[in-house]
Structure prediction request, 303 residues.
Amino acid sequence: MLNSGWLDTFTTLCETGHFTRTAELRGMTQPGVSQHLRKLEDQVGHPLISRQGKGFSLTPAGEAVLAVGRLRRREEQSLMQSVSHDAPDIGEVSIGCSGSFAMLLYPGLLPLMQAAPKLTVRLEAMPRDGIIAAVLDRRLDLGIVGHRPDHPRLEATRLGVEELCLLLPAGEVPGDLSLADLDARGFIAHPDGFAYADDLFALNFPDEFRGADRLRVRAFVNQISQIPAPVAHGIGYTLLPRSGYDAYPQRDRLQIVGLPQGRSHELWLISGKGRQWPARIPPVARVIRQIAERLCSTSDAGT
Prediction:
C-alpha cells in the first residue's frame, strides 16, 4: 500500500507545480515536501519526476502514481459526502423475498422511488436460505422470510401470518372436496408447490395422501406470476401463499377453497443485528410493513 501522506503530498505537488506552494498547502517545509517525494519514489522503485530547472515533468511512473492519488481523493470525497449527507431519498436499498411477496411489494415501492429520483431499490426473489445468507453477508439490507431465523447475527421483526391457499377456478362449488377430486383435476405444480402439498394435504387427507411425489401433475410452471393462470382457465388446481393469489391480476377467475385444517406461516423482516440503518432504509421498511399488514389482515379474514 502506498503511504497516504506521501501520496497526498505528491498529488498536491503535481497540481500546483511548485514545491513552495505545496509546502504552504500541506503545512510543511519545502525540504519536507522533497523528503515525501523521495520516500514515495523509494516505495514505488522508480523516479516520479524529471527536474527541468526550477520546474519538473512527470515520468511514466509519476503519471501512474498521480492517477492513483487523484482516484483516492475522489473516493475519499465520495465517502465523506455519503457519510455527511445520510438522506432518506439518496442511495441504494436491497431487498430479498419470495416471488409471490415480491409481486405485491414492488408496486408499493414505486411511489417511493417516484418521489426520490436518487433512490435505487433492488428487489430480488430468492429462496429463504438464500435470503438469510445474503443478509448475513450484507449483500441484502433487508429480507422477508417465513419462519423466524435462529441466528445470532440477525435481527428479526414479526410482520404477521400469511395463509396457504388452495386455488380452484372461480364459480365451482366443490362441496366436500376429497383428494381424489383434486387428483382428477391435476396439480399445477411449481418449485415450492410440492412442499406446500406435503404440508397441507398431510394434515387434511391423512388416510389418502401418500406424498406430493404421488400427486398427478397436470402442468409445471416456474414463473411465479403465471402459476395461477392455468387454474384461471379451468385447468387443475394449485397451492400458493395468499400473496401469490392477491398479486394475480385476474383473481376474479379464481377461488380460495377452504379445507378443514388450514395452514399458514409467519412473515419476518430480517436485517443484520446491531447495524445502524442509513436514513434511506426506514422508509422502505415502512412500505414492507404496510404491505405485510394488508396481506396478513386479508389472510386473517379468510381463515
